[in-house]
Amino acid sequence: MNLPRSSRRSFLKSTLAAGIAPLILPSHIWAAETKPNSRRTFGFIGIGKQMHGLMGGFLGKDEVQGVAVCDVDNNRRNEGKRIIGEHYAKKSGSDFKGAEMYKDFRELLGRKDIDTVVIATPDHWHALIAIAATEAGKDIYCEKPLTETLHEARALVDSVRKHDRVFQTGSMQRSMREFRVACELVRNGVIGKISRVEAGFGKPGVPCDLAEEAAEPGLDWDMWLGPAPMRGYNSILSPRGVHTHFPLWRLYREYGGGYVTDWGAHHLDIAQWGLGMDDSGPVEVIPPSDWQTAEAGGKLRYANGVEVTHIKENGVTFFGSDGEVYVNRGKIRVQVKGAEKAKFMDKNDQPALTAQLDNLEKEFLADAKVKLYSSADHKQDFLDAIQKRSRPICDVEIGARSVTCCHLLNLGYYHGEKIQWDPAKNNFAGGTGNPAWLTREYRGQWKVA
């Protein structure tokens, strides 16, 4: 992130000088088996619906100590403070005042007693806050999609590596067994040579055209916009009060990339995993002929000829010379040489899904040559990686490669051009593409250099 160096230094110095002391919890709150050196102090940035789930998961871990929340809306700041306070009050059986609250993420990052941050802001803020967090020496769990642009994806990887941080992308499908089994079937050649993949999710982003509404009391709208263009407040972008739904800022290019970056960051991530492309990516983007109005049909082509086609139906299907594998949350369907080996489509019957996955592993993967990273808990995997100082299941490089697929697909819809891509250089190739498409215009002091 590019802030004026003097401004950033003075801001952090003033923050620390303000007397912000480490929050110490009574020792009886912690489980006896939790070793002191495994405890992690957490700050939570962006207290919306997604963060509610993340906070619940992390605070339930004995090695996590929540100490701070940050949001540009005072209602959501208070909600975050309430969640932490009630959690520890219940755990300790005594009154607990909760966490410190911040409107500006830089104040939270300025606290040296905070080890780790969780970022669940709107997408247009992800890279700036995450890069600032690496510079402040924090380990990071950041929601997908990781970035708003192709350039930000590489800048974030570079910053994480430079500052030697542990970084988990919130693509939690990697920690769901059905996706791992599906990808292991594909990677071990159970359905033969892969010819194509279909990845289903919603439409690309559109320019924001929402009318201005009366400002929300208690919301710093200028800070909500941050690097995005200035425009009037609208409750679709930042719902009033404490909302219980996923806001639709994600539909607009200024703050997200439509469902191509939203759900696409999940399913294109699984396509990458199944194709063994975690350190690479496609070499060409092929837009549909009706790209101006299309909501699906774009394609990503890989160097081996495999094409990933964006379809509307949710899920991921791998097509091979000897069969097919379809996978979605709580669902899997496997056909091998004309025989149906699994078909489970009721995501609410976990025991039945487990039985089918057991059968698939027993029949096809008992002696598999390719064994993928296995995680049953995305948050715990992050905590384990912090303890070992290792890379978690969805390290920043993986998240960056997956969001790159999303951005490339969107560029096809936005501009209607075939684009060649060099995944080694992370740049356009063959004289295609426009360098301006790698980044975006930043407003005011906010910039990813």
TrEMBL record:
InterPro entries per record: Gfo/Idh/MocA-like_OxRdtase_N (IPR000683), Gfo/Idh/MocA_oxidrdct_glycsds (IPR050463), Gfo/Idh/MocA_OxRdtase_bact_C (IPR043906), NAD(P)-bd_dom_sf (IPR036291), TAT_signal (IPR006311)
Keyword Nucleotide-binding: no
GO molecular function, one term: nucleotide binding
Protein name: Oxidoreductase domain protein
PANTHER family (alphabetical): BCDNA.GH03377 (PTHR43818), OXIDOREDUCTASE FAMILY PROTEIN (PTHR43818:SF5)
Organism: Chthoniobacter flavus Ellin428
Annotated keywords: Signal
Signal peptide segment: 1-31
Gene3D superfamilies named among the record's database cross-references: Dihydrodipicolinate Reductase, domain 2, NAD(P)-binding Rossmann-like Domain
Ranges for domain Gfo/Idh/MocA-like oxidoreductase bacterial type C-terminal: 210-447
Domain named Gfo/Idh/MocA-like oxidoreductase N-terminal: residues: 42-170
